Amino acid sequence: MAEKAAQADAWGGYVPKRIVLMGVSGSGKSSIGRAFAPLVQACYFDGDSFHPQSNIDKMTEGAALKDEDRWPWLKKVGETLASGDRRVIVSCSALKRIYRDCIRDVAGSGVVFVYLSGNRELLASRMSSRSGHFMPEFLLDSQYADLQPPEKDETSITVDVILPIEIVIRNIYEKLQSMIRLSVNTALL
Fold first, then answer.
1. Within a 10 A sphere around the Cβ of 80, how many other Cβ atoms?
2. What domains are there in the chain, each with its CATH number?
3. Quick one: how many helices (H) and strands (E) in the chain?
4. 172: closest CA among 51, 49, 33?
5. Could you tell me if 91 and 135 are in contact, meaning their C-beta atoms sit under 8 angstroms apart?
6. Rounded to an integer, what distance in angstroms lies between the CA atom of residue 71 and that of residue 106?
7. pTM reported for the whole predicted model
8. Could you tell me where the beta strands, DSSP code E, fall in the chain?
9. How far apart are CA 149 and CA 94, in angstroms?
Protein backbone atom coordinates (compact mmCIF):
# COMPACT_ATOMS: atom_id res chain seq x y z
CA MET A 1 0.00 0.00 0.00
CA ALA A 2 2.73 2.48 0.95
CA GLU A 3 4.68 1.73 -2.23
CA LYS A 4 1.68 2.56 -4.40
CA ALA A 5 1.25 5.98 -2.78
CA ALA A 6 4.97 6.75 -2.51
CA GLN A 7 5.71 8.13 -5.95
CA ALA A 8 8.75 10.29 -6.54
CA ASP A 9 7.96 13.95 -7.06
CA ALA A 10 9.40 16.36 -9.62
CA TRP A 11 12.50 16.85 -7.46
CA GLY A 12 13.13 13.10 -7.19
CA GLY A 13 12.18 12.78 -3.54
CA TYR A 14 9.11 11.86 -1.56
CA VAL A 15 6.69 13.93 0.45
CA PRO A 16 3.82 12.80 2.67
CA LYS A 17 0.57 11.78 1.04
CA ARG A 18 -1.68 14.06 3.14
CA ILE A 19 -0.53 17.61 3.82
CA VAL A 20 -2.37 20.51 5.44
CA LEU A 21 -0.90 23.98 4.93
CA MET A 22 -2.01 25.78 8.08
CA GLY A 23 -1.71 29.22 9.61
CA VAL A 24 -3.51 32.48 10.05
CA SER A 25 -4.94 34.46 7.16
CA GLY A 26 -2.28 36.06 4.98
CA SER A 27 0.34 33.40 5.71
CA GLY A 28 0.34 32.30 2.07
CA LYS A 29 -1.53 29.02 2.37
CA SER A 30 -3.31 29.33 -0.98
CA SER A 31 -0.39 30.77 -2.95
CA ILE A 32 2.01 28.19 -1.56
CA GLY A 33 -0.46 25.35 -2.11
CA ARG A 34 -1.06 26.27 -5.75
CA ALA A 35 2.69 26.53 -6.42
CA PHE A 36 3.82 23.54 -4.33
CA ALA A 37 1.26 20.92 -5.40
CA PRO A 38 2.43 20.50 -9.03
CA LEU A 39 6.04 20.16 -7.88
CA VAL A 40 5.17 17.18 -5.68
CA GLN A 41 2.50 15.74 -7.99
CA ALA A 42 -0.33 16.48 -5.57
CA CYS A 43 -3.92 17.58 -5.93
CA TYR A 44 -4.41 20.95 -4.25
CA PHE A 45 -7.63 22.06 -2.57
CA ASP A 46 -8.17 25.51 -1.09
CA GLY A 47 -9.90 24.94 2.23
CA ASP A 48 -11.72 28.25 1.90
CA SER A 49 -13.86 26.63 -0.81
CA PHE A 50 -15.21 24.14 1.76
CA HIS A 51 -16.72 26.84 3.97
CA PRO A 52 -20.51 26.92 3.91
CA GLN A 53 -21.93 30.22 2.66
CA SER A 54 -23.01 31.09 6.22
CA ASN A 55 -19.35 31.10 7.33
CA ILE A 56 -18.29 33.25 4.39
CA ASP A 57 -21.13 35.68 5.14
CA LYS A 58 -20.06 35.95 8.80
CA MET A 59 -16.44 36.65 7.94
CA THR A 60 -17.40 39.10 5.19
CA GLU A 61 -19.48 40.98 7.77
CA GLY A 62 -16.49 41.05 10.12
CA ALA A 63 -17.62 38.38 12.58
CA ALA A 64 -15.10 35.81 13.77
CA LEU A 65 -16.19 32.19 13.41
CA LYS A 66 -17.03 30.16 16.49
CA ASP A 67 -16.05 26.52 16.97
CA GLU A 68 -19.54 25.31 16.02
CA ASP A 69 -19.20 27.16 12.70
CA ARG A 70 -15.99 25.33 11.93
CA TRP A 71 -16.82 21.65 12.57
CA PRO A 72 -18.57 20.92 9.22
CA TRP A 73 -15.76 22.73 7.39
CA LEU A 74 -13.03 20.82 9.23
CA LYS A 75 -14.82 17.54 8.55
CA LYS A 76 -14.85 18.35 4.83
CA VAL A 77 -11.09 19.06 4.97
CA GLY A 78 -10.51 15.65 6.59
CA GLU A 79 -12.73 13.89 4.05
CA THR A 80 -10.83 15.50 1.19
CA LEU A 81 -7.50 14.36 2.63
CA ALA A 82 -8.82 10.81 3.03
CA SER A 83 -10.22 10.49 -0.48
CA GLY A 84 -8.32 7.96 -2.55
CA ASP A 85 -4.67 7.03 -2.93
CA ARG A 86 -3.51 10.28 -4.49
CA ARG A 87 -1.27 12.82 -2.77
CA VAL A 88 -3.40 15.70 -1.45
CA ILE A 89 -2.56 19.17 -0.14
CA VAL A 90 -5.28 21.23 1.53
CA SER A 91 -4.94 24.76 2.84
CA CYS A 92 -6.81 25.28 6.10
CA SER A 93 -6.13 27.62 9.01
CA ALA A 94 -6.35 24.70 11.52
CA LEU A 95 -5.61 27.23 14.24
CA LYS A 96 -6.37 25.14 17.32
CA ARG A 97 -5.22 21.69 18.38
CA ILE A 98 -8.82 20.49 18.55
CA TYR A 99 -9.31 21.53 14.91
CA ARG A 100 -6.25 19.56 13.83
CA ASP A 101 -7.44 16.60 15.92
CA CYS A 102 -10.79 16.74 14.11
CA ILE A 103 -9.05 16.71 10.73
CA ARG A 104 -6.85 13.78 11.79
CA ASP A 105 -9.85 11.86 13.17
CA VAL A 106 -11.67 12.15 9.84
CA ALA A 107 -8.66 11.76 7.51
CA GLY A 108 -6.99 8.90 9.34
CA SER A 109 -3.28 8.44 9.91
CA GLY A 110 -0.53 10.11 7.97
CA VAL A 111 -1.65 13.75 8.00
CA VAL A 112 1.23 16.23 8.21
CA PHE A 113 0.58 19.85 9.17
CA VAL A 114 2.85 22.49 7.65
CA TYR A 115 2.56 25.52 9.92
CA LEU A 116 3.22 28.68 7.91
CA SER A 117 4.44 31.09 10.55
CA GLY A 118 4.77 34.82 10.09
CA ASN A 119 4.73 38.01 12.10
CA ARG A 120 1.53 40.01 12.32
CA GLU A 121 2.85 43.08 10.49
CA LEU A 122 3.93 41.08 7.44
CA LEU A 123 0.67 39.16 7.23
CA ALA A 124 -1.49 42.26 7.76
CA SER A 125 0.41 43.93 4.93
CA ARG A 126 -0.28 40.96 2.66
CA MET A 127 -3.96 40.97 3.58
CA SER A 128 -4.36 44.68 2.89
CA SER A 129 -2.83 44.30 -0.59
CA ARG A 130 -5.00 41.40 -1.77
CA SER A 131 -8.38 41.78 -3.39
CA GLY A 132 -11.38 39.52 -3.70
CA HIS A 133 -10.96 37.68 -0.41
CA PHE A 134 -13.77 37.52 2.14
CA MET A 135 -11.52 37.66 5.21
CA PRO A 136 -11.06 41.26 6.41
CA GLU A 137 -7.70 42.32 7.79
CA PHE A 138 -9.14 43.35 11.15
CA LEU A 139 -10.04 39.71 11.93
CA LEU A 140 -6.34 38.79 11.89
CA ASP A 141 -6.06 39.58 15.60
CA SER A 142 -8.86 37.11 16.40
CA GLN A 143 -6.97 34.44 14.46
CA TYR A 144 -3.75 35.13 16.37
CA ALA A 145 -5.76 34.95 19.62
CA ASP A 146 -7.02 31.48 18.64
CA LEU A 147 -3.71 30.23 17.23
CA GLN A 148 -2.16 27.24 18.96
CA PRO A 149 0.98 26.32 17.02
CA PRO A 150 1.48 22.57 16.59
CA GLU A 151 3.02 20.82 19.56
CA LYS A 152 5.92 18.37 19.52
CA ASP A 153 3.61 15.34 19.63
CA GLU A 154 1.83 16.43 16.43
CA THR A 155 3.18 15.38 13.05
CA SER A 156 4.14 18.81 11.77
CA ILE A 157 6.82 21.16 10.56
CA THR A 158 7.08 24.93 10.92
CA VAL A 159 8.24 27.23 8.15
CA ASP A 160 8.70 30.99 8.41
CA VAL A 161 6.99 32.78 5.52
CA ILE A 162 9.03 36.00 5.59
CA LEU A 163 11.17 34.86 2.64
CA PRO A 164 10.12 34.83 -1.04
CA ILE A 165 7.63 32.08 -1.92
CA GLU A 166 10.19 30.06 -3.92
CA ILE A 167 12.44 29.80 -0.87
CA VAL A 168 9.51 29.06 1.44
CA ILE A 169 8.46 26.20 -0.86
CA ARG A 170 12.01 24.84 -0.95
CA ASN A 171 12.17 25.03 2.87
CA ILE A 172 8.88 23.14 3.14
CA TYR A 173 10.14 20.47 0.76
CA GLU A 174 13.45 20.03 2.58
CA LYS A 175 11.78 19.79 5.99
CA LEU A 176 9.29 17.24 4.66
CA GLN A 177 12.19 15.23 3.19
CA SER A 178 13.89 15.23 6.58
CA MET A 179 10.66 14.13 8.23
CA ILE A 180 10.30 11.21 5.81
CA ARG A 181 13.93 10.13 6.29
CA LEU A 182 13.55 10.14 10.07
CA SER A 183 10.11 8.52 10.16
CA VAL A 184 9.24 4.88 10.47
CA ASN A 185 5.59 5.78 9.84
CA THR A 186 4.85 4.47 6.34
CA ALA A 187 1.37 6.01 6.59
CA LEU A 188 3.05 9.33 5.71
CA LEU A 189 3.83 8.02 2.24
1. 23
2. 2-188 (3.40.50.300)
3. 8, 5
4. 33
5. no
6. 11
7. 0.83
8. 18-22, 43-46, 88-91, 111-117, 156-160
9. 9
**pLDDT by position in tens, the chain (length 189):** 333 344 556 666 678 899 999 998 888 899 999 999 999 999 999 998 888 888 888 877 777 778 898 899 999 999 999 987 889 999 999 999 999 999 999 999 899 999 999 876 777 666 565 555 455 556 668 788 889 999 999 999 999 998 999 999 999 999 998 888 777 555 565
Strand 111-117 with 18-22, pairing: parallel
CB-based contact 140:120 (threshold 8 Å): yes
Spell 117-134 as b/e; 16+ CB within 10 A means b: bbeeeebbebbeeeeeee
